[in-house]
Write a structure and sequence with these properties.
This protein has about 575 residues and is α/β, with parallel strands linked by helices. About 55% of the residues lie in helices and about 10% in strands. The two termini are about 50 Å apart.
Protein backbone atom coordinates (compact mmCIF):
# COMPACT_ATOMS: atom_id res chain seq x y z
CA UNK A 1 0.00 0.00 0.00
CA UNK A 2 1.37 3.42 -0.98
CA UNK A 3 2.35 6.06 1.56
CA UNK A 4 -0.43 8.33 0.26
CA UNK A 5 -3.09 5.76 1.06
CA UNK A 6 -1.62 5.06 4.49
CA UNK A 7 -1.63 8.77 5.25
CA UNK A 8 -5.28 9.05 4.22
CA UNK A 9 -6.27 6.07 6.35
CA UNK A 10 -4.45 7.64 9.26
CA UNK A 11 -6.22 10.93 8.59
CA UNK A 12 -9.62 9.29 8.57
CA UNK A 13 -9.03 7.82 11.99
CA UNK A 14 -9.31 11.40 13.22
CA UNK A 15 -12.31 12.41 11.08
CA UNK A 16 -15.42 12.68 13.24
CA UNK A 17 -17.66 12.08 10.20
CA UNK A 18 -16.09 8.74 9.17
CA UNK A 19 -16.81 5.28 10.61
CA UNK A 20 -14.48 2.50 9.46
CA UNK A 21 -16.23 -0.75 10.21
CA UNK A 22 -15.16 -3.43 7.73
CA UNK A 23 -15.85 -7.12 8.11
CA UNK A 24 -12.40 -7.56 9.63
CA UNK A 25 -13.09 -4.91 12.27
CA UNK A 26 -16.49 -6.43 13.07
CA UNK A 27 -15.04 -9.95 13.37
CA UNK A 28 -12.25 -8.74 15.64
CA UNK A 29 -14.47 -6.67 17.92
CA UNK A 30 -17.54 -8.87 17.86
CA UNK A 31 -19.62 -5.83 18.80
CA UNK A 32 -22.65 -4.47 16.94
CA UNK A 33 -22.31 -1.05 15.33
CA UNK A 34 -23.14 1.45 18.08
CA UNK A 35 -25.09 3.94 15.97
CA UNK A 36 -27.48 1.43 14.45
CA UNK A 37 -30.94 2.83 15.10
CA UNK A 38 -29.40 5.94 16.70
CA UNK A 39 -28.46 8.03 13.68
CA UNK A 40 -30.97 10.76 14.59
CA UNK A 41 -28.95 11.28 17.78
CA UNK A 42 -25.71 11.51 15.82
CA UNK A 43 -27.11 14.10 13.42
CA UNK A 44 -29.04 15.86 16.18
CA UNK A 45 -32.33 15.84 14.25
CA UNK A 46 -35.03 13.56 12.85
CA UNK A 47 -34.51 14.53 9.21
CA UNK A 48 -34.69 11.82 6.54
CA UNK A 49 -31.46 9.90 5.91
CA UNK A 50 -30.29 9.39 2.33
CA UNK A 51 -27.73 6.68 1.61
CA UNK A 52 -25.29 6.59 -1.32
CA UNK A 53 -23.86 3.10 -1.84
CA UNK A 54 -20.55 2.84 -3.65
CA UNK A 55 -19.97 6.56 -3.09
CA UNK A 56 -16.35 6.59 -4.29
CA UNK A 57 -14.90 10.02 -3.54
CA UNK A 58 -18.20 11.10 -2.04
CA UNK A 59 -18.81 13.84 -4.60
CA UNK A 60 -22.51 13.05 -4.94
CA UNK A 61 -23.03 12.72 -1.21
CA UNK A 62 -21.37 16.04 -0.42
CA UNK A 63 -23.08 17.90 -3.28
CA UNK A 64 -26.52 16.69 -2.21
CA UNK A 65 -25.84 17.61 1.41
CA UNK A 66 -24.87 21.13 0.36
CA UNK A 67 -28.14 21.52 -1.55
CA UNK A 68 -30.45 20.03 1.07
CA UNK A 69 -29.82 21.01 4.67
CA UNK A 70 -33.13 19.38 5.67
CA UNK A 71 -31.80 15.88 4.91
CA UNK A 72 -28.90 13.83 6.27
CA UNK A 73 -26.53 12.02 3.89
CA UNK A 74 -24.31 9.00 4.40
CA UNK A 75 -21.84 7.72 1.80
CA UNK A 76 -20.76 4.08 1.89
CA UNK A 77 -17.74 2.56 0.16
CA UNK A 78 -15.05 0.00 0.89
CA UNK A 79 -12.32 2.14 -0.72
CA UNK A 80 -11.12 4.33 2.12
CA UNK A 81 -8.54 6.26 0.11
CA UNK A 82 -11.28 7.49 -2.21
CA UNK A 83 -13.70 8.29 0.59
CA UNK A 84 -11.07 10.51 2.24
CA UNK A 85 -11.67 13.18 -0.43
CA UNK A 86 -15.40 13.59 0.29
CA UNK A 87 -15.02 13.26 4.04
CA UNK A 88 -12.34 15.97 4.16
CA UNK A 89 -14.40 18.28 1.92
CA UNK A 90 -17.43 17.87 4.18
CA UNK A 91 -15.36 18.82 7.21
CA UNK A 92 -13.80 21.81 5.45
CA UNK A 93 -17.23 23.01 4.34
CA UNK A 94 -18.61 22.59 7.86
CA UNK A 95 -21.37 20.21 6.69
CA UNK A 96 -23.03 18.66 9.73
CA UNK A 97 -25.47 16.57 7.71
CA UNK A 98 -22.84 14.30 6.16
CA UNK A 99 -21.21 11.06 7.32
CA UNK A 100 -19.28 8.24 5.70
CA UNK A 101 -19.01 4.54 6.46
CA UNK A 102 -16.11 2.48 5.17
CA UNK A 103 -17.50 -1.01 4.81
CA UNK A 104 -18.80 -3.58 2.32
CA UNK A 105 -22.30 -2.98 0.96
CA UNK A 106 -23.12 -6.60 1.80
CA UNK A 107 -22.83 -5.60 5.48
CA UNK A 108 -25.16 -2.59 5.23
CA UNK A 109 -27.89 -4.05 7.45
CA UNK A 110 -25.41 -4.01 10.35
CA UNK A 111 -25.51 -0.19 10.38
CA UNK A 112 -29.21 0.68 10.16
CA UNK A 113 -32.55 -0.43 11.54
CA UNK A 114 -35.56 -1.11 9.33
CA UNK A 115 -37.04 2.20 8.16
CA UNK A 116 -34.04 4.26 9.24
CA UNK A 117 -33.19 5.06 5.59
CA UNK A 118 -35.65 6.97 3.40
CA UNK A 119 -33.78 6.88 0.11
CA UNK A 120 -30.88 4.97 -1.50
CA UNK A 121 -28.68 6.16 -4.37
CA UNK A 122 -26.62 3.90 -6.63
CA UNK A 123 -24.40 6.16 -8.72
CA UNK A 124 -22.56 4.53 -11.62
CA UNK A 125 -22.18 1.07 -10.08
CA UNK A 126 -20.22 -1.64 -11.86
CA UNK A 127 -22.85 -3.41 -14.05
CA UNK A 128 -21.32 -6.82 -13.20
CA UNK A 129 -22.53 -8.18 -16.54
CA UNK A 130 -21.40 -11.76 -15.81
CA UNK A 131 -22.31 -11.93 -12.10
CA UNK A 132 -26.00 -11.43 -11.35
CA UNK A 133 -25.63 -11.61 -7.58
CA UNK A 134 -22.98 -8.87 -7.65
CA UNK A 135 -25.25 -6.35 -9.41
CA UNK A 136 -26.39 -3.71 -6.94
CA UNK A 137 -29.97 -3.81 -8.27
CA UNK A 138 -30.25 -7.61 -8.28
CA UNK A 139 -32.90 -9.39 -6.22
CA UNK A 140 -30.16 -10.31 -3.73
CA UNK A 141 -29.37 -6.68 -2.99
CA UNK A 142 -33.00 -5.52 -3.10
CA UNK A 143 -33.76 -7.95 -0.27
CA UNK A 144 -30.80 -6.47 1.61
CA UNK A 145 -32.06 -2.91 1.09
CA UNK A 146 -35.49 -3.93 2.41
CA UNK A 147 -33.89 -4.50 5.81
CA UNK A 148 -32.98 -0.81 6.20
CA UNK A 149 -35.22 1.16 3.83
CA UNK A 150 -38.60 2.56 4.84
CA UNK A 151 -41.54 0.79 3.19
CA UNK A 152 -41.93 2.23 -0.32
CA UNK A 153 -38.73 4.20 0.18
CA UNK A 154 -37.07 5.33 -3.03
CA UNK A 155 -34.28 3.58 -4.92
CA UNK A 156 -32.30 5.74 -7.37
CA UNK A 157 -30.03 4.38 -10.11
CA UNK A 158 -27.88 6.73 -12.16
CA UNK A 159 -25.75 4.91 -14.71
CA UNK A 160 -23.83 5.14 -17.95
CA UNK A 161 -24.35 1.43 -18.60
CA UNK A 162 -27.09 0.44 -21.04
CA UNK A 163 -26.76 -3.10 -19.70
CA UNK A 164 -27.31 -2.01 -16.09
CA UNK A 165 -30.22 0.22 -17.05
CA UNK A 166 -31.91 -2.48 -19.16
CA UNK A 167 -31.35 -5.16 -16.52
CA UNK A 168 -32.89 -3.02 -13.76
CA UNK A 169 -35.74 -1.96 -16.03
CA UNK A 170 -36.52 -5.60 -16.85
CA UNK A 171 -36.28 -6.56 -13.17
CA UNK A 172 -38.91 -3.93 -12.35
CA UNK A 173 -41.17 -5.31 -15.09
CA UNK A 174 -40.70 -8.87 -13.84
CA UNK A 175 -41.81 -7.78 -10.37
CA UNK A 176 -44.60 -5.40 -11.45
CA UNK A 177 -42.84 -2.42 -9.89
CA UNK A 178 -43.85 0.86 -11.50
CA UNK A 179 -40.92 3.29 -11.90
CA UNK A 180 -41.24 6.77 -10.44
CA UNK A 181 -38.89 8.05 -13.14
CA UNK A 182 -37.45 6.30 -16.17
CA UNK A 183 -35.08 8.39 -18.31
CA UNK A 184 -32.94 6.97 -21.12
CA UNK A 185 -30.98 10.16 -21.78
CA UNK A 186 -30.92 12.39 -18.72
CA UNK A 187 -29.36 15.47 -20.29
CA UNK A 188 -31.73 15.41 -23.25
CA UNK A 189 -34.75 15.14 -20.96
CA UNK A 190 -36.87 17.64 -19.07
CA UNK A 191 -34.90 16.69 -15.93
CA UNK A 192 -31.59 17.89 -17.40
CA UNK A 193 -31.46 20.85 -15.02
CA UNK A 194 -32.76 19.11 -11.93
CA UNK A 195 -30.48 20.28 -9.07
CA UNK A 196 -29.80 16.76 -7.77
CA UNK A 197 -29.85 14.75 -10.99
CA UNK A 198 -27.54 17.21 -12.74
CA UNK A 199 -24.76 16.81 -10.17
CA UNK A 200 -21.84 15.57 -12.27
CA UNK A 201 -19.06 13.61 -10.60
CA UNK A 202 -15.60 13.40 -12.12
CA UNK A 203 -16.31 10.04 -13.72
CA UNK A 204 -19.71 11.11 -15.02
CA UNK A 205 -18.06 13.98 -16.85
CA UNK A 206 -15.69 11.49 -18.44
CA UNK A 207 -18.59 9.31 -19.57
CA UNK A 208 -20.27 12.33 -21.10
CA UNK A 209 -17.03 13.33 -22.78
CA UNK A 210 -16.89 9.89 -24.34
CA UNK A 211 -20.33 10.50 -25.83
CA UNK A 212 -22.16 8.02 -23.59
CA UNK A 213 -25.64 8.96 -22.40
CA UNK A 214 -26.59 8.93 -18.73
CA UNK A 215 -29.65 6.93 -17.71
CA UNK A 216 -31.77 7.27 -14.58
CA UNK A 217 -34.30 5.05 -12.82
CA UNK A 218 -36.19 5.77 -9.61
CA UNK A 219 -38.55 3.22 -8.10
CA UNK A 220 -40.23 2.40 -4.77
CA UNK A 221 -39.19 -0.65 -2.77
CA UNK A 222 -41.99 -2.34 -0.84
CA UNK A 223 -41.87 -5.17 1.70
CA UNK A 224 -42.66 -8.11 -0.57
CA UNK A 225 -41.24 -11.49 0.44
CA UNK A 226 -39.34 -12.22 -2.75
CA UNK A 227 -38.21 -10.81 -6.08
CA UNK A 228 -38.11 -12.49 -9.48
CA UNK A 229 -35.04 -12.13 -11.67
CA UNK A 230 -35.84 -11.12 -15.29
CA UNK A 231 -35.72 -13.98 -17.79
CA UNK A 232 -34.35 -11.99 -20.72
CA UNK A 233 -31.11 -11.88 -22.66
CA UNK A 234 -29.46 -8.46 -22.37
CA UNK A 235 -26.73 -7.33 -24.70
CA UNK A 236 -23.47 -6.54 -22.92
CA UNK A 237 -21.96 -3.05 -23.00
CA UNK A 238 -19.21 -2.77 -25.59
CA UNK A 239 -16.89 -0.67 -23.45
CA UNK A 240 -15.31 -0.86 -20.03
CA UNK A 241 -14.59 1.55 -17.23
CA UNK A 242 -11.80 4.10 -17.32
CA UNK A 243 -8.32 2.99 -16.38
CA UNK A 244 -8.76 -0.60 -17.59
CA UNK A 245 -6.86 -2.16 -20.47
CA UNK A 246 -10.01 -3.69 -21.95
CA UNK A 247 -11.51 -2.83 -25.32
CA UNK A 248 -12.97 0.65 -25.71
CA UNK A 249 -15.03 2.05 -28.56
CA UNK A 250 -13.53 5.37 -29.52
CA UNK A 251 -15.40 8.42 -30.76
CA UNK A 252 -14.03 8.05 -34.28
CA UNK A 253 -15.70 4.69 -34.73
CA UNK A 254 -12.51 2.62 -34.68
CA UNK A 255 -11.36 0.08 -32.14
CA UNK A 256 -8.05 0.38 -30.33
CA UNK A 257 -5.01 -1.60 -31.27
CA UNK A 258 -6.08 -4.92 -29.74
CA UNK A 259 -9.09 -5.22 -32.05
CA UNK A 260 -9.24 -3.36 -35.35
CA UNK A 261 -12.77 -4.23 -36.45
CA UNK A 262 -16.09 -4.19 -34.65
CA UNK A 263 -18.54 -7.07 -34.54
CA UNK A 264 -22.09 -6.44 -35.72
CA UNK A 265 -23.41 -6.18 -32.17
CA UNK A 266 -20.64 -3.72 -31.30
CA UNK A 267 -21.61 -1.67 -34.34
CA UNK A 268 -25.26 -1.70 -33.22
CA UNK A 269 -24.23 -0.34 -29.83
CA UNK A 270 -22.00 2.23 -31.49
CA UNK A 271 -24.98 3.40 -33.56
CA UNK A 272 -27.08 3.68 -30.38
CA UNK A 273 -24.38 5.81 -28.78
CA UNK A 274 -24.15 8.07 -31.81
CA UNK A 275 -27.92 8.51 -32.01
CA UNK A 276 -28.08 9.28 -28.31
CA UNK A 277 -25.47 12.00 -28.86
CA UNK A 278 -27.52 13.59 -31.63
CA UNK A 279 -28.93 16.77 -30.17
CA UNK A 280 -32.17 18.36 -31.34
CA UNK A 281 -33.19 21.92 -30.63
CA UNK A 282 -35.07 22.20 -27.33
CA UNK A 283 -37.78 24.45 -28.73
CA UNK A 284 -40.45 23.99 -29.75
CA UNK A 285 -40.71 20.95 -27.46
CA UNK A 286 -43.89 19.80 -29.21
CA UNK A 287 -41.86 19.26 -32.39
CA UNK A 288 -38.62 17.76 -31.08
CA UNK A 289 -39.69 15.69 -28.07
CA UNK A 290 -41.73 13.27 -30.25
CA UNK A 291 -38.68 12.82 -32.50
CA UNK A 292 -36.45 11.95 -29.56
CA UNK A 293 -39.16 9.60 -28.26
CA UNK A 294 -39.44 7.80 -31.62
CA UNK A 295 -35.72 7.68 -32.26
CA UNK A 296 -34.32 6.92 -28.80
CA UNK A 297 -37.09 5.95 -26.38
CA UNK A 298 -38.92 3.51 -28.67
CA UNK A 299 -35.51 2.56 -29.97
CA UNK A 300 -34.98 -0.57 -32.05
CA UNK A 301 -32.27 -2.96 -33.14
CA UNK A 302 -30.65 -0.35 -35.42
CA UNK A 303 -30.28 -2.98 -38.14
CA UNK A 304 -30.19 -0.68 -41.16
CA UNK A 305 -27.48 1.70 -39.96
CA UNK A 306 -25.55 -1.25 -38.55
CA UNK A 307 -25.70 -2.97 -41.96
CA UNK A 308 -24.43 0.27 -43.52
CA UNK A 309 -21.45 0.48 -41.19
CA UNK A 310 -20.76 -3.25 -41.39
CA UNK A 311 -20.70 -3.14 -45.20
CA UNK A 312 -18.39 -0.13 -45.11
CA UNK A 313 -16.07 -1.96 -42.72
CA UNK A 314 -15.97 -4.99 -45.03
CA UNK A 315 -14.41 -2.90 -47.78
CA UNK A 316 -12.20 -0.41 -45.94
CA UNK A 317 -11.71 -1.82 -42.45
CA UNK A 318 -13.49 0.96 -40.55
CA UNK A 319 -16.98 2.41 -40.12
CA UNK A 320 -16.33 6.14 -39.96
CA UNK A 321 -16.68 6.92 -43.72
CA UNK A 322 -20.32 5.72 -43.62
CA UNK A 323 -21.34 7.06 -40.20
CA UNK A 324 -23.34 10.13 -41.27
CA UNK A 325 -25.06 8.20 -44.05
CA UNK A 326 -25.94 5.39 -41.62
CA UNK A 327 -27.50 7.83 -39.16
CA UNK A 328 -29.41 9.47 -42.01
CA UNK A 329 -30.81 6.10 -43.07
CA UNK A 330 -31.91 5.35 -39.51
CA UNK A 331 -33.53 8.78 -39.22
CA UNK A 332 -35.41 8.14 -42.47
CA UNK A 333 -36.42 4.64 -41.35
CA UNK A 334 -37.89 5.98 -38.10
CA UNK A 335 -39.70 8.70 -40.06
CA UNK A 336 -41.40 5.96 -42.13
CA UNK A 337 -42.34 4.04 -38.98
CA UNK A 338 -43.82 7.14 -37.37
CA UNK A 339 -46.00 7.87 -40.42
CA UNK A 340 -46.77 4.16 -40.89
CA UNK A 341 -48.21 4.02 -37.38
CA UNK A 342 -50.50 6.94 -38.18
CA UNK A 343 -51.73 5.32 -41.41
CA UNK A 344 -52.28 1.96 -39.71
CA UNK A 345 -53.72 3.56 -36.56
CA UNK A 346 -51.25 1.38 -34.63
CA UNK A 347 -51.28 1.81 -30.87
CA UNK A 348 -47.96 0.10 -30.12
CA UNK A 349 -44.48 0.10 -31.63
CA UNK A 350 -41.86 -2.19 -30.09
CA UNK A 351 -44.08 -2.59 -27.06
CA UNK A 352 -44.46 1.14 -26.42
CA UNK A 353 -47.29 3.58 -27.25
CA UNK A 354 -46.85 5.10 -30.69
CA UNK A 355 -46.09 8.81 -31.14
CA UNK A 356 -49.57 9.74 -32.35
CA UNK A 357 -51.06 8.01 -29.29
CA UNK A 358 -48.75 9.78 -26.84
CA UNK A 359 -49.24 13.17 -28.54
CA UNK A 360 -51.68 13.44 -31.48
CA UNK A 361 -51.73 12.85 -35.24
CA UNK A 362 -50.93 16.42 -36.26
CA UNK A 363 -47.90 16.50 -33.98
CA UNK A 364 -46.74 13.12 -35.27
CA UNK A 365 -47.02 14.23 -38.91
CA UNK A 366 -45.07 17.43 -38.32
CA UNK A 367 -42.37 15.69 -36.28
CA UNK A 368 -42.08 13.02 -38.96
CA UNK A 369 -41.63 15.64 -41.67
CA UNK A 370 -38.84 17.18 -39.62
CA UNK A 371 -37.16 13.78 -39.30
CA UNK A 372 -37.16 13.52 -43.10
CA UNK A 373 -35.37 16.85 -43.36
CA UNK A 374 -32.88 15.76 -40.70
CA UNK A 375 -32.23 12.55 -42.64
CA UNK A 376 -31.14 14.55 -45.70
CA UNK A 377 -29.07 16.81 -43.45
CA UNK A 378 -27.14 13.77 -42.22
CA UNK A 379 -26.78 12.26 -45.69
CA UNK A 380 -25.33 15.59 -46.86
CA UNK A 381 -22.43 15.15 -44.40
CA UNK A 382 -21.08 12.18 -46.40
CA UNK A 383 -17.59 12.78 -47.82
CA UNK A 384 -17.63 14.64 -51.12
CA UNK A 385 -15.94 11.69 -52.79
CA UNK A 386 -18.98 9.47 -52.21
CA UNK A 387 -21.73 12.08 -52.00
CA UNK A 388 -23.13 11.89 -55.60
CA UNK A 389 -23.53 8.10 -55.54
CA UNK A 390 -24.84 8.03 -51.95
CA UNK A 391 -27.37 10.82 -52.53
CA UNK A 392 -28.56 9.25 -55.80
CA UNK A 393 -29.13 5.89 -54.19
CA UNK A 394 -30.69 7.41 -51.08
CA UNK A 395 -33.21 9.26 -53.27
CA UNK A 396 -34.00 6.04 -55.14
CA UNK A 397 -34.47 4.27 -51.81
CA UNK A 398 -36.78 6.97 -50.45
CA UNK A 399 -38.92 6.97 -53.59
CA UNK A 400 -39.05 3.17 -53.59
CA UNK A 401 -40.25 3.06 -50.00
CA UNK A 402 -42.94 5.66 -50.74
CA UNK A 403 -44.10 3.71 -53.80
CA UNK A 404 -44.27 0.58 -51.70
CA UNK A 405 -46.32 2.36 -49.06
CA UNK A 406 -48.79 3.57 -51.69
CA UNK A 407 -49.15 0.07 -53.12
CA UNK A 408 -49.74 -1.20 -49.59
CA UNK A 409 -52.55 1.32 -49.14
CA UNK A 410 -54.02 0.49 -52.56
CA UNK A 411 -54.08 -3.20 -51.77
CA UNK A 412 -56.27 -2.64 -48.71
CA UNK A 413 -59.21 -1.69 -50.95
CA UNK A 414 -58.36 -3.70 -54.04
CA UNK A 415 -59.89 -7.13 -54.66
CA UNK A 416 -57.41 -8.00 -57.41
CA UNK A 417 -54.04 -8.38 -55.74
CA UNK A 418 -51.75 -11.21 -56.81
CA UNK A 419 -48.87 -12.77 -54.92
CA UNK A 420 -46.50 -11.20 -57.48
CA UNK A 421 -48.07 -7.79 -56.78
CA UNK A 422 -47.50 -8.32 -53.08
CA UNK A 423 -43.88 -9.41 -53.49
CA UNK A 424 -43.15 -6.27 -55.52
CA UNK A 425 -44.84 -4.14 -52.86
CA UNK A 426 -42.74 -5.53 -50.00
CA UNK A 427 -39.62 -5.32 -52.16
CA UNK A 428 -40.21 -1.59 -52.40
CA UNK A 429 -41.58 -0.92 -48.94
CA UNK A 430 -39.19 -3.06 -46.89
CA UNK A 431 -36.39 -4.73 -48.84
CA UNK A 432 -35.01 -1.73 -50.74
CA UNK A 433 -34.19 0.10 -47.50
CA UNK A 434 -32.25 -2.84 -46.10
CA UNK A 435 -30.56 -3.39 -49.45
CA UNK A 436 -29.92 0.31 -49.88
CA UNK A 437 -28.28 0.45 -46.46
CA UNK A 438 -25.82 -2.25 -47.51
CA UNK A 439 -25.12 -0.65 -50.87
CA UNK A 440 -24.56 2.83 -49.42
CA UNK A 441 -22.21 1.36 -46.81
CA UNK A 442 -20.28 -0.46 -49.53
CA UNK A 443 -20.02 2.74 -51.59
CA UNK A 444 -18.66 4.67 -48.59
CA UNK A 445 -16.17 1.85 -48.03
CA UNK A 446 -14.82 2.21 -51.55
CA UNK A 447 -16.49 -0.84 -53.16
CA UNK A 448 -16.82 -0.86 -56.95
CA UNK A 449 -20.17 -0.92 -58.73
CA UNK A 450 -20.21 -4.72 -59.14
CA UNK A 451 -19.66 -5.34 -55.42
CA UNK A 452 -22.11 -2.65 -54.33
CA UNK A 453 -24.84 -4.04 -56.61
CA UNK A 454 -24.23 -7.63 -55.49
CA UNK A 455 -24.53 -6.54 -51.88
CA UNK A 456 -27.74 -4.74 -52.81
CA UNK A 457 -29.16 -7.98 -54.29
CA UNK A 458 -28.18 -9.80 -51.10
CA UNK A 459 -30.09 -7.17 -49.13
CA UNK A 460 -33.18 -7.52 -51.33
CA UNK A 461 -33.34 -11.26 -50.68
CA UNK A 462 -32.81 -10.83 -46.96
CA UNK A 463 -35.34 -7.98 -46.85
CA UNK A 464 -38.03 -10.05 -48.59
CA UNK A 465 -37.37 -12.94 -46.23
CA UNK A 466 -37.52 -10.59 -43.28
CA UNK A 467 -40.90 -9.16 -44.32
CA UNK A 468 -42.38 -12.62 -44.88
CA UNK A 469 -41.12 -13.55 -41.42
CA UNK A 470 -42.78 -10.40 -40.08
CA UNK A 471 -46.06 -11.39 -41.77
CA UNK A 472 -45.93 -14.74 -40.02
CA UNK A 473 -45.17 -13.17 -36.64
CA UNK A 474 -48.08 -10.74 -36.99
CA UNK A 475 -50.42 -13.73 -36.89
CA UNK A 476 -48.47 -16.34 -34.95
CA UNK A 477 -46.04 -14.32 -32.82
CA UNK A 478 -45.99 -13.45 -29.12
CA UNK A 479 -47.04 -9.86 -28.37
CA UNK A 480 -44.37 -9.45 -25.68
CA UNK A 481 -41.61 -10.65 -28.01
CA UNK A 482 -42.97 -9.16 -31.24
CA UNK A 483 -43.53 -5.72 -29.69
CA UNK A 484 -46.85 -5.18 -31.48
CA UNK A 485 -50.38 -6.43 -30.97
CA UNK A 486 -50.94 -9.71 -32.81
CA UNK A 487 -53.39 -9.71 -35.72
CA UNK A 488 -52.87 -6.12 -36.80
CA UNK A 489 -52.55 -7.08 -40.48
CA UNK A 490 -55.83 -9.00 -40.34
CA UNK A 491 -57.65 -6.13 -38.64
CA UNK A 492 -56.32 -3.62 -41.18
CA UNK A 493 -57.23 -5.89 -44.15
CA UNK A 494 -53.60 -6.19 -45.22
CA UNK A 495 -53.18 -8.37 -48.29
CA UNK A 496 -50.21 -10.22 -46.87
CA UNK A 497 -48.59 -13.31 -48.37
CA UNK A 498 -50.57 -15.45 -45.91
CA UNK A 499 -53.88 -13.95 -47.02
CA UNK A 500 -53.12 -14.17 -50.75
CA UNK A 501 -51.82 -17.73 -50.47
CA UNK A 502 -54.92 -18.67 -48.48
CA UNK A 503 -57.15 -17.29 -51.25
CA UNK A 504 -55.18 -19.26 -53.81
CA UNK A 505 -55.43 -22.51 -51.84
CA UNK A 506 -59.09 -21.97 -50.86
CA UNK A 507 -60.33 -21.14 -54.38
CA UNK A 508 -63.88 -22.43 -54.90
CA UNK A 509 -64.35 -23.43 -51.26
CA UNK A 510 -66.33 -21.90 -48.37
CA UNK A 511 -63.04 -20.70 -46.90
CA UNK A 512 -62.49 -18.44 -49.92
CA UNK A 513 -65.91 -16.86 -49.46
CA UNK A 514 -65.36 -16.48 -45.70
CA UNK A 515 -61.99 -14.78 -46.19
CA UNK A 516 -63.37 -12.32 -48.75
CA UNK A 517 -66.30 -11.61 -46.48
CA UNK A 518 -64.14 -10.91 -43.43
CA UNK A 519 -61.83 -8.62 -45.40
CA UNK A 520 -64.73 -6.59 -46.79
CA UNK A 521 -66.46 -5.84 -43.48
CA UNK A 522 -66.23 -2.27 -42.23
CA UNK A 523 -67.43 -3.07 -38.72
CA UNK A 524 -66.51 -6.22 -36.81
CA UNK A 525 -65.36 -7.62 -33.50
CA UNK A 526 -61.56 -7.49 -33.57
CA UNK A 527 -60.88 -10.69 -31.62
CA UNK A 528 -63.55 -12.61 -33.50
CA UNK A 529 -62.14 -11.57 -36.88
CA UNK A 530 -58.56 -12.47 -35.93
CA UNK A 531 -59.62 -15.89 -34.67
CA UNK A 532 -61.78 -16.67 -37.70
CA UNK A 533 -59.10 -15.72 -40.23
CA UNK A 534 -56.36 -17.49 -38.28
CA UNK A 535 -58.47 -20.67 -38.19
CA UNK A 536 -58.74 -20.53 -41.99
CA UNK A 537 -54.97 -20.05 -42.28
CA UNK A 538 -54.43 -23.06 -40.05
CA UNK A 539 -56.75 -25.27 -42.10
CA UNK A 540 -54.93 -24.33 -45.30
CA UNK A 541 -51.44 -24.57 -43.74
CA UNK A 542 -50.46 -21.17 -45.15
CA UNK A 543 -47.89 -20.64 -42.43
CA UNK A 544 -45.82 -23.46 -43.94
CA UNK A 545 -46.28 -22.08 -47.47
CA UNK A 546 -45.09 -18.64 -46.33
CA UNK A 547 -42.08 -20.14 -44.57
CA UNK A 548 -41.17 -21.98 -47.79
CA UNK A 549 -41.19 -18.72 -49.76
CA UNK A 550 -39.21 -17.01 -47.01
CA UNK A 551 -36.54 -19.71 -47.26
CA UNK A 552 -36.47 -19.46 -51.07
CA UNK A 553 -35.77 -15.74 -50.90
CA UNK A 554 -33.06 -16.42 -48.36
CA UNK A 555 -31.31 -18.80 -50.75
CA UNK A 556 -31.46 -16.16 -53.50
CA UNK A 557 -29.81 -13.70 -51.11
CA UNK A 558 -26.97 -16.07 -50.24
CA UNK A 559 -26.25 -16.77 -53.93
CA UNK A 560 -25.91 -13.04 -54.60
CA UNK A 561 -22.81 -12.99 -52.38
CA UNK A 562 -21.00 -15.17 -54.92
CA UNK A 563 -20.79 -12.15 -57.22
CA UNK A 564 -18.76 -10.13 -54.70
CA UNK A 565 -15.00 -10.16 -54.23
CA UNK A 566 -15.40 -10.61 -50.50
CA UNK A 567 -13.42 -13.46 -48.94
CA UNK A 568 -15.09 -16.53 -47.44
CA UNK A 569 -14.85 -15.19 -43.89
CA UNK A 570 -16.58 -11.95 -44.87
CA UNK A 571 -19.30 -13.79 -46.78
CA UNK A 572 -19.86 -16.08 -43.80
CA UNK A 573 -20.23 -13.03 -41.56
CA UNK A 574 -23.00 -11.68 -43.84
CA UNK A 575 -24.75 -15.04 -43.96
CA UNK A 576 -24.62 -15.22 -40.18
CA UNK A 577 -26.25 -11.78 -39.98
CA UNK A 578 -29.04 -12.96 -42.27
CA UNK A 579 -29.50 -16.08 -40.15
CA UNK A 580 -29.65 -14.04 -36.96
CA UNK A 581 -32.17 -11.66 -38.48
CA UNK A 582 -34.45 -14.51 -39.49
CA UNK A 583 -33.66 -16.56 -36.37
CA UNK A 584 -32.35 -19.38 -38.54
CA UNK A 585 -29.77 -21.95 -37.55
CA UNK A 586 -26.40 -21.13 -39.18
Amino acid sequence: MGKGKLAKFSDMETFENVFQYTYGVWRESGKPFEKKGQWNTYFGNNNPIVLELGCGKGEYTVAQAEQNADKNYIGVDIKGARMWTGAKQALQKGLKNVAFIRTSIEMISAFFEKGEISEIWLTFPDPQMKKVNKRLTSSTFLRLYQQILATNGTMNLKTDSQFMFTYTDELLKANNIQPIERITDLYASTKANDPVLSIKTYYEQQWLGRGITIKYLAFPLDDRNSFTEPDVEIEFDTYRSFGRDARTILNNGKMNADKKEMSFSEIQNYVRQQLAKYKFKKEPQGLYEPIAYELVEIGGKRLRPAFTLFACQLYCGEVQPALSAALGLEMFHNFTLLHDDIMDNADKRRGKPTVHKVWDENTAILSGDTMMAKAYELIAKTKNKYMPAVLKHFNETVIGVMEGQQYDMNFEKSTKVSINNYMEMIRLKTAVLLAGSLKIGAICGGADKKNANALYDFGIGVGLSFQLCDDILDVYGDTEVFGKNIGGDIVENKKTYLYLKALELAKGTPDEEALINWFSKETFDRDKKIKAVTDIYNRLNVKKATEDEMNRQYEVAVKALEKTTLNDEQKSALVKLANDLLKRES
